[in-house]
Amino acid sequence: xxxxxxxxxxxxxxxxxxxxxxxxxxxxxxxxxxxxxxxxxxxxxxxxxxxxxxxxxxxxxxxxxxxxxxxxxxxxxxxxxxxxxxxxxxxxxxxxxxxxxxxxxxxxxxxxxxxxxxxxxxxxxxxxxxxxxxxxxxxxxxxxxxxxxxxxxxxxxxxxxxxxxxxxxxxxxxxxxxxxxxxxxxxxxxxxxxxxxxxxxxxxxxxxxxxxxxxxxxxxxxxxxxxxxxxxxxxxxxxxxxxxxxxxxxxxxxxxxxxxxxxxxxxxxxxxxxxxxxxxxxxx
Length: 284
Known about the structure:
CATH topology of the largest domain: Endonuclease, Chain A
Number of strands: 6
CATH architecture of the largest domain: 2-Layer Sandwich
Protein name: Transcriptional regulator with XRE-family HTH domain
Strand order of the largest sheet: 3-2-1-4-5-6
GO molecular function: DNA binding
Order of helices and strands: HHHHHHEHHEHHEEEEHH
């Protein structure tokens, strides 16, 4: 499966480029608003991603910023691509945040999970059991849509050039009974299968490792082929909110945390052996 450009990534790149051109032109938001007859908040909202930028907006901005012909052409293309629909838009009611759009074009995904199997490695039965536990009010149709959305996400592992997926799982993830023994046995078997995938590295962080750098909870680091165009992101989720962090000190902190987790976890070979023993604990 070929990789399809992500509108979410294109929109982010467009905002960053517009901000870069404004800085190069030596203008502040108030200057831009005055020259274009806009309210100051429109400039800020465009650059922060809180307002969709139109083709006319881009044309007015690049003209004001005295962008080169090549820059104008590139930004016009980005604006067109940013307005396209990603496959995840069809599931906007059950995929409420922008994470999937950023995940869709990542070249590397480094994830620490302390509670659940990461979505890209979940079986359908595990998905349904976790929905039932976490969404007591979800009806059958909503549950089916959530399942369909999560299964669709997994297609990126079948891309012609899939992302490098590196997962550190707390032992609690495979010990906690989700959906019953048969569901867990199949899920652990899926994890063992993933260990054989050359684009996946999976490590288990056993209870015996003791305290570690990520006691505060799970996180995901998304990396891209061109760090200058698309800087690394850190994604954090809890019951009431999600965060996407892109400031270099924040990203560096989570990268270091992930390095510490990898060092404390079992190596990939021993992790596979550990999972095989866990699977035997779940009866057929």
